[in-house]
Amino acid sequence: MHLVSFGGVDRFAHAGVLIGDCVIDLAAAAPLVYENVAGSRWSMRDVLMGLPDGDGLDGVAQIVAAVLDYAGVDDADMPPPDAGMTIGSIELLVPRSRVRLLAPVPHPASLRDGYLFEQHVAATMAQRGRGVPDAWYEAPVFYFGNHQAILGPEDDLPLPRTAALDYELEVACVIGRAGRDIAEEDAWEHVAGLMIMNDWSARDVQRREMRIGLGPAKAKDFATSLGPWLVTLDALEPYRLPDDRYDLTMVARVNGEERSRGSLRSVYHSFAALIAHASRDALLVPGDVIGSGTVGGGCLLELTGGAGPWLSAGDTVELDVTGLGVLRTRIREP
């Protein structure tokens, strides 16, 4: 399934599922399956926390099946023919052209970003005259980002106060089941799905603050883009490798020109290892977002040796990942 959040006239971030060129409003369609849910509003975190009736994503699948049956469509890959379908006066199926897509999880419970790709670590360390620290190989480190500064697939990025704006080509997982001290072999059971993540960076700010030794802070504080949808793991099964990695090609373009290309399969530390490490003595909850870190060659810092040129107002950045769609962001004047 392709889970989305979309804005309505009530300014609420509604949870939905993308089917062809239409979006199912999950709360509106829920009465096809569940009793006593009419008039509900569900956000994506509500769904991940277990709505409806504690069924979570299993319940979402039942609602989608019921809508397709109601619309007379057998193949879930086909767009339902009756766009704008209603139950009474409630619209449960909305044409994609009439909704504004938000970040799949507009208000994450938390935002962590990993450092999983050896090529990226080696390249950035080399720019500081260092090799990869031995400690990096011992555990999949991460930092906390600003979960209140999330942009979606239809949001522009106001140019922050930096002379060195950079994109970072990443994939993120979303926690769908709470857990503490999660074993690595059980980690994927706690994942709702994967989506594209752009961990925007102010490299001049980062260069100054990293000398202090606390890790990135203001350099990453202004925005993280997520989207365009959250793809559940069953839909990604064709790309799953025997070692539980995913063979997803990752591409970045600036103004239509390809700048970066890599693969999620090239992670040194897996998402499963990162989840196990993050949950050690800590509770992960539904709606937590955990990024992979930048794929090798997946940012201008690597490609230009830190010299630029950097991004500026008027540029458009596209992150394109197999199976996950395209996350497009235009940079505008503040």
Descriptive account of the structure:
The protein is α+β, with helices and mostly antiparallel strands. It folds into 2 domains: 2-102, no CATH class; 110-332, Fumarylacetoacetase-like, C-terminal domain (Fumarylacetoacetate hydrolase, domain 2, Alpha-Beta Complex), CATH 3.90.850.10. The protein has 8 helices and 23 strands. The strands form 5 sheets. Strands 1, 2, 3, 6, 7, 8, 9, 10, 13, 15, 17 and 21 form a 12-stranded mixed β-sheet that branches. A hairpin with a 2-residue loop joins strand 4 (86-87) and strand 5. It is globular and about 65 Å long.
Q: Mind sketching the topology for me?
A:
Blueprint: E1 2-7, E2 13-19, E3 22-25, H1 26-29, H2 44-48, H3 56-71, E4 86-87, E5 90-91, E6 93-95, E7 100-102, E8 110-114, H4 118-126, H5 134-138, E9 142-144, E10 150-151, E11 157-158, E12 165-166, E13 169-175, E14 179-180, E15 191-198, E16 201-202, H6 203-209, E17 224-232, E18 249-254, E19 257-263, H7 271-278, E20 283-284, E21 288-291, H8 300-303, E22 316-321, E23 325-332
Parallel strand pairs: 8-21, 10-17, 11-23
Antiparallel strand pairs: 1-2, 1-7, 1-17, 2-3, 3-6, 4-5, 8-9, 12-16, 13-15, 13-21, 14-20, 15-17, 18-19, 18-22, 22-23
